[in-house]
Design goal:
This is Bet v I/Major latex protein domain-containing protein. Belongs to the BetVI family. By secondary structure, the chain is an alpha+beta fold. It has three helices and seven strands. The protein has one domain: Alpha-D-Glucose-1,6-Bisphosphate, Chain A, domain 4 (2-Layer Sandwich), CATH 3.30.530.20. About 25% of the residues lie in helices and about 45% in strands. Strands 1-7-6-5-4-3-2 form a seven-stranded antiparallel sheet. Strand 2 and strand 3 form a beta hairpin. The longest helix is centred in the C-terminal third of the chain and has 22 residues. It is globular, with a radius of gyration of 15 Å.
Length: about 150
C-alpha cells in the first residue's frame, strides 16, 4: 500500500528562479550545491521536462547509496509542479518498492516561495522512522538549494 508524507517550507528565493533550478538546471546544480553528497548527475533521456530520466551518482557523504535513477513523472511549468520517481538504485535498494517526491512551488511574495512536498512511498519494511527521515532529508535538500541560489549561483 502506497503511503504519503507531506511537509512544506518557505524559502527566500523567487518562484521563477527556484522553478528554473528544479525544472531545468537540476543536474548541473546538485553536484555544485552538495558536492559531498552528489558526485555528478546526468540527463539520460529527455530535456528536463516530463519523462526525463536523471542519473545521480552519490559521493562519499552518502555511505548507504551509490547511485539513483529518477524519472520526471509530473511536470507542469505553469503550476510550478514537478514529481520525481525513483526507478532504479537508491531508495529502491533499501526496502522501497515505490518512492516519489513531488514539489509544488507557490509564490508567497516577491522573494519568497512556499514549497509543498509530498513523498509517496511503498516499503516492505515497516518502520516508524521512514516518513520523518524522508521528510527531513528532503527539507535539508531544499535548504541547500535555497542557500546555493541566494548566494548568487546561477
Amino acid at each position: 500500500m502506497i503511503k504519503e508524507v507531506k511537509t512544506q517550507v518557505n524559502v527566500g528565493v523567487e518562484v521563477d528562479v527556484l522553478w528554473k533550478a528544479f525544472g531545468k538546471d537540476l543536474k548541473d546544480i546538485l553536484p555544485k550545491m552538495m558536492p559531498n553528497l552528489v558526485k555528478d548527475a546526468d540527463m539520460l533521456e529527455g530535456d528536463g521536462g516530463l519523462d526525463t530520466v536523471y542519473l545521480f551518482n552519490f559521493g562519499p557523504g552518502l555511505k548507504t547509496m551509490t547511485y539513483q535513477k529518477e524519472r520526471v513523472t509530473e511536470f507542469d511549468e505553469f503550476a510550478h509542479r514537478i514529481g520525481l520517481e525513483v526507478i532504479e538504485g537508491g531508495h529502491l535498494n533499501h526496502g522501497f518498492s515505490h518512492y516519489k517526491t513531488t514539489f509544488q512551488l507557490t509564490s508567497t511574495g516577491e522573494q519568497e516561495t512556499l514549497i509543498d512536498v509530498t513523498i509517496s512511498y511503498e516499503s516492505q519494511v515497516e518502520e516508524d522512522t521512514i516518513p520523518s527521515n524522508s521528510a527531513s532529508s528532503t527539507l535539508i535538500f531544499i535548504k541547500h538549494m535555497e542557500n546555493y541560489l541566494m548566494n548568487g549561483a546561477t
